[in-house]
Each structure stands twice: as C-alpha cells, then as structure tokens.
Design goal:
Ribosomal_eL37/eL43, structural constituent of ribosome, 3 strands, 18% strand, RNA binding, alpha+beta, N-terminal domain of TfIIb, 50S ribosomal protein L37Ae
C-alpha cells in the first residue's frame, strides 16, 4: 500500500494483517497449527478441528477499539 492510501488506512491494515498472521493454539489439541482456511473458517492441521469464527481473528472482540 503506497502513498495512494492515507496513514490511518495503512495502520489499520497493518493491525488486521498482523492479527491474521499470528500463531494460534488449537482449542482442541493445543498445537500451534491452527490457521485460517477461508474467511471465517479456522482449522487445525494436526487434529482436523474446524470452527467458524471471525474473518480475521478467532476471537471477534480483539480488533474492536
């Protein structure tokens, strides 16, 4: 994202991107292989546990504020 977008938009994008790419623990087996498969679908590659949650984070309340 270059100069075309404002600083506020770039900061907000950076926050969402960092939240999306951070490592997460699987609620079922506690491994660190819990990743987003598609928008709102999260899956553990180790135990095949699937859950539908937020688009960018499993906990919906994290990005507000």
């Amino acid at each position: 994202m270059g100069v075309k977008f404002g600083a506020t938009v770039r900061k907000r994008y950076g926050k969402v991107y960092r939240t999306l790419k951070q490592k997460r623990r699987c609620p079922s087996c506690t491994s660190l292989k819990f990743k987003r498969v598609a928008m709102g679908i999260w899956r553990c590659n180790k135990c095949e546990y699937k859950v539908a949650a937020g688009a960018y984070d499993v906990n919906l309340g994290k990005l507000q504020g």
